[in-house]
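Marked as duplicate of an earlier ticket. Keeping the data here for the record.
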Amino acid sequence: MKKVAIITDGSCELPDDLIERYDIDVVPLAVIFEKTNERFYVTGESGTMSKDLFYKKLRQEIPKTDVPLPKVFYGYFMEAAKKADSVIAIFVSNKLSKVILNAKSAVSGIHDKDITIVDSCVGGPALGLLVLEAAKMAQDCRSKGEILQSVNDLIPQVSHTAILDTLNNIYRSGRVGWLRKSLGEAFKIKPILHFENGETSNGGNFRGREEVLNGLKRLAPYALKHSVTDEILIWHSRNIEEAEELKETLSKNNRYSKNIRIIEAGPIIGGYMGEKMLGLIYLGDFKDNWLLGE
């Protein structure tokens, strides 16, 4: 039996090979297209819906997302507890989803198992990186206390930079108004999104696609130098060409032997990001001028 089992939720965006290699349990989240009355389930990178189908349907409708009932979390917790002395569940920010609310409700009915829920204060691939580090430590037979200490130390060090190509999807989801959307389109504004205090925050703007790629290329050597773990993620949505170009820049400067991986935004978060988003995610120090060049 293992010392610690690691659980997360389907918004983590982790690739299947990493989930399998580090024995991470993923509670699926649902994506609902109301116009066609379809429901799909997402477990990190995979699920019951391909990304090609998702982005095709996204052009017609912004889907809703849904969180499992407490009884589903209960089942995952009990299964994880069969293979480990303790369970650590690291979930998407409590300010972004009801995942933690339902998970805590499930845990309240479990009295003979050691289960700890951690609010990551982030989501998407940033959550995935935190989960991955915890799972690596669990595989190395580190104690529950050591893993929790490490995760809590890493949460404030999340560097999540995602640059949207358009405000259209956020507008369609109701998260920004018509005026801001119209001004953004008129001036070709590309908003920069970070995480702050458990929520997404605006980190400024670029104008035009060229500025976006140049800014992330400017950030690349700093990300490599200041990343405190071995993993750096390039995050994109239907933007593989620019993602590959950014990876080439990172690879040329990778004297720190970091693992650089490209992942595409999936159905849980991709609906808000829209197409042509490009981002760089790592755990470590970040300064605005590394990206903006000011």
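See parent ticket for discussion. Residues 236 and 278 are 4 Å apart (CA to CA).
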